Each structure stands twice: as C-alpha cells, then as structure tokens.
What does this fold into?
Amino acid sequence: MSSTTRDRTGEPVAFPESTPRLEDTPRSEGGTTPAGAGTSAKGAARLREDETRPRGLAPVGQPQPTVTLVEGSSFCVSDHAGEIEPHRADGLFVRDTRVVSRWQLRIDGAPVEPLTVIPAEPFECVFVGRAATRPGHPEPTIVVERSRFVGQGMREDLTLRNFGSEAAGVDVSLAVDADFADLFHVKEHRSAHPHPVGHRHVGSDLVYWIEGSTESRGVRVSAPGAHAVSHALEFRVVVPPQSSWSTTIEVLPSLGGHELEAAFPADRPVESAAPAERMRGWHDATPTAEVENTVLANALAVSERDLGALRIKDPEHPEDDVVAAGAPWFMALFGRDSLITSWMMLPFAPRLAVGTLRTLARLQGTRSDPRTDEQPGRILHEVRLGADLSLALGGESVYYGSIDSTPLFVMLAGRALRWGVPAEELAELRPAIERALAWIEEHGDRDGDGFVEYERGTDRGLANQGWKDSLDSIAFRDGTWARTPIALAEVQGYCHAAYLAGADLAEAWGEPGDAIRWRERAAELKRRFHEAFWMPDEGFYALALDRDKRQVDVVSSNIGHCLWTGIVDESVADRVVDRLLAPDMFSGFGIRTLSTTSRAFNPASYHNGSVWPHDSVLGAAGMARYGRRDAAMRVVGGLLDALEAFGGRLPELFCGFDRADKPVPVPYPTSCSPQAWAAATPFEMLRIALGLAADLPRGVVTARPTPPLIGGVHLAGLPLGLHRLTIEADPDRVDVAGLPEAVAGPSPAPARGRVD
It folds into this structure.
C-alpha cells in the first residue's frame, strides 16, 4: 500500500536487521506509539481490543545479519559492510546463478570499518564506513560510501571523502571472484560448480567464464581508471583535503555469449534506470492509505515496496508481472506462491493477478512426463534458470509437481472476474481455464473417488506436493508418515472453490449449462468432503486421506484453508473455528501449522508446528467468511503483534512457541525475507478488517466499519474494474465513494456466505 509520503530514505525494504523497531520511538503510557509515528498514519496510538496482551513488544533478535537487495529475479546478499565472502551464502545472483562470489574492498590494504547501511528502494542502498587511521592522524579521516544498485547485474558507485587537512594518497583494491555456483549449491553449502572457471584481466576489466560447459555463462567487472590484476581491480588515487574521489564499478553478466544490458548504466542517472521507473509505476498504480493503527500502516508501506521489488517478468512478455516467491533462495516463479499472493493483492493490484494468470497459462502442461510431473492442463510448481538444471526438481527448468496450483489458478480467474477484470479479457484465458478444470477431474482425481490426490512420477520429484511439501509434513497423530496417493483436505477446498469460479466464468461467457454443472459438482464435493474427512471425536477435519482412504488424524492449520474456500459444512463451522483458536493451535502470534498434541509437533520445524503468516491470515479470512469476525480479528491481532516485533516485515515463517513462554515470536533460521505471500499478508489483514468484498457482475460491494484494534482507515484509488474507489472507515461507520452506477452502495457483510 503506497504511503502518503514516499521518501527514498523511508522505512527499509530489503534489510530486516536494520529496520527501525517501533520501540525506537517514544511511547506514551500504556505502551502505544505517539500519533503520527507510524508510516501513513494520521490518527493516535495503536488501539487494542485485548488489554491483557503484553505492552510494548521487544524487537525480535535477528541472527546472522545480512543485507539483501532485490530486483526481479536478481539479488545480492552481503554483510553490513557490503562485503561478499566466498565461504558464506553471499553473492550476486542472476538467473539462479552466483555471478559474483567475492567482493572485498580494501583501503591501503585494510578492510573498511562499517558505520551504517542506508536503505532506499529494495534494489539499492548505501554502505557507509571509514578507512583505517592514517599516519599522523588521531582517528580516521576518510569516509567510504558504496552506493549499490542491483538489477540483472550490479553497479556500485564508490566515493572516498577526505575530511583531513591535507591530500591523502590512497591505494584502493577490490578483490573479485566468480564461481558460477548454482543457487542450490550455495543455499545448501555444497561444493562449487563442477566446471572450472576461466579468468583474464585486460586493461580495466576482469572477465570470468565457465569452461568446458554447454551452459555459456560469464561476467565482466569493469571500472574506468582501474588497473586490472589477477582477481582484483586496483586504483591509486589522491583525494584532496575536504574533497572526494569517485568511480563507478559495473558487473555485467553474459548468457549464451551475449552480455546482458546494464539495468543501471553508468552514464545515466539512477532515477532514469528501468528498475527505478518500474518501481515508480508500481507505487503510482497502488492505492494510497492512511491507517490509524501505526503497526499496520508501517507494514503496508514496507510490504508494498517488497512486492514491487519481487516482481519478475518474461522478457518476451514485459507487460505481464508476476512475483517471485521470496529472497534470497526463491527468486523464481512458483505457481502456488504467485497465485496466493495475487489473490490477496487482487483488490489492491489487479494487474498482478492478470499477469500471473497469463504467465502461468503460457507454461501450462501439455504432455505427460513422469520426471517433471507434467500433465496436460496442469499448472507448474516452479521455474528454475540456473546453470545446473540437474539440481532442479525433475532435472528440468519447469517442474509441475504441485497438487494445488491448478485449482488455485481457476480460483484466481474467478476472483478477478468478481473484482472487475472484464469477462472479455478473461476470455483469452478460457482454453487454459477449461484445461485446468479438466485436469482436476481427469488427472487430479487419480482413482475416480471424487477427491484430488498426489503421487510423484519418479524419485526426482517432491514426495509431498501440497503447500506443506516437507518430507515429514503429512503424518498421523502417532508420527507415522502417510503413504501416497494422498488427498489433502485443503486441496479439496481449492477444487470446490475452483468449480464455483468455473461456474461464474461460464455464466459470464454465456454458458449457463456449464455453470449449473460446475455448481452441482461443487455441492457434491462439499457433501462428500464432510463425510470422508470429518473426525467426530475431534470435532474437526482430518488433514488428509492416505492411499487406503484412512484419515490422517491430526489437527492442522490446513483446515483454515477449508474455511477460506467455503467447503466446511455450515453445521460445524463454529466448532472448526474454535478449535483453530484452542491453545494447542493458536500460539498467540498466529495459528500453528500442527497441534501440539501431535507426536510430530516441533515448534522449530518448517511445517510441523511453526507459524506461517499467510497460512494464519487465510484461516482468519475463512473465519470471517463464516461470520466469525471475532475470531478473525483475534488472529489479525496476533499477527499485528508479530509485525510489531519484526519491525514491519513478516518473515516467511517463524517458530510456533507459545506466547506465554516466549513473549516475542522466535525467528525460523532459514526463513525468506522479503517473501511474497508474507508481504501480501498485511493487505489481507486490512481487507478482513474492512470486511471488503466485491462481486461486480452481480452489482455487490461489501464493506463494514473497522474494529477498534484497527481504528480509522482512508483508502484512495482502490481499483474496481474501470473505477477507483475511496473508502473512509472507522469503528462507527464506513463510506465508499466512486462506485459504478450499477452498485448503489456498500452492503453490510453477511453473517454467513460468500465473503472473500
């Protein structure tokens, strides 16, 4: 959400460790933040519904601080001095390959002492440090500034400022190396690229390339006035007193023998570079917000920048944006992640959903291939572009082993229709949507029992193909792993929602017979789901059915997704909601992925007891859908407190320790940040708080006053078809301006029914 002030020195985007905490600002009595202290906030302090919560959460300790810069699928990871060390998981990564593995600046042979990192947009920052003390001076007199810009390569503007009283003769050296290691090698600390790396130095250029490989990749590092030696650029400079010296260093990767175009050309101002212009376009297109709750206001501003930076595109279709899953290790297109992120962002950034649908449709499966789990009509799991595709799932650049991307694809198309994307525009996707629906019935339902199951084609694929895809994530209460084929509960919910979306789309395309058939199919699936998955003794639904159709009898957060999609039988909805908020499931900061009563529970595991913000907020959305706004806002409140502790950026996941035992959320060690669906979570929290929903073909817009926890909200420029809405809401009222003539005004949110 664009803030009302977009300052390049505003809240950091790609630096979790350097983000100012809310505790750094003065608090009034009661632990709240003074009015105006939060980004995009106009009101007074944060209002709490539950005064029993601890007041003034301490910031989360962040181990192993690094700086991550992101632009599209390129990213750079370094320490806070700007150094890239080859023995760490550092580097400049382009197309899933590390093109710079060492980047070490020395001034007169000594490293620079770091002072601070100044962030701006997600692709840029300034590292500020000082050189060692010079002879005859009591303390250092040379300040070093490294302005770094990342975008399918890198540019670094190096400036030395001499605050001494006489000229300084300085020897500057930049050690550079490239190992062309695949991203998976780096992430898992495996050995380097199997092929040797060639190197030469000519004039002011360092050049590296992969030798003996069919994958032609290289990189050139260049700076005017530099003297290139083996694996380093050297400068001998004189910096006048009270003056400065500068140079620009460019990193230009090559692929297939062709050098990639510089994203930030050295001969042009940074503001005119394509990434900067693209980010300005994103800021201008997203609505502006003022939110009285300063924690949410800050999070919306940070998330808006993060999502803008995570956007990637196919060079052959630059008009279509999609989001990469997350930095640093998942800067690639993931079907499930991009679809769920686009779903949550659709009310605020509908073109992202359209770009995601178009991109995934172009890559939709057309054949059967057990190695990649491709099937006709199936939507992909991930795309990888690394130099070593043997490390990618299935050994190919596109892998299809996701059981849920395909129904989520249809769901997103249906929601796009409701939020005003014209049926005529969606008609170009009609063949892909119809193939996806056919896949659900013909390939997804492997045994004809009406449920969609997964089983990988070979041992090169994912053993578990839902969003909890860890090897141990689908287990019975006693800890025994379920055996495939497995029918996941939430996947049946996605299919139910996909059938309803298919019905809406068929109706919009003038096919009433198809609409009736898909609605009947949805109703039958909902009935059969309740019969097969309901556990009477638990008052809850099973996580899954195994290959023998036995219930995987654990209590899990997956059932929150079932609420979200509307497959839960209305007669048991309240029991399901209350069970998700029971102490074994709700940590105080979010909904655990698995109940503490399960043998497999581990609060520090990836999927068996951790808290994933997107998972929790989808559960909250489901609670609101079934009329339980009280429960939904309890989850939102927990996530707000997590946001406060994490300084405005939710990580991919955090540990599921109980809040009574650990008063701050405990970070998960390898969690991505920024990460796409975690970044979209604050937007969904705002939508839930506003009770905001739309069904433009039926002339319905739903909104309601905000809870006291959120306070006043002002949204301007919210897209709805060809219209832009302005919403003013507080705990006493809601007003919506700019509605189409066919929509008379906002309807109050219903107690039950279709609130998306």
The CA atoms of residues 652 and 672 lie 5 Å apart. DSSP finds 15 helices and 33 strands in the chain. The mean pLDDT is 88.
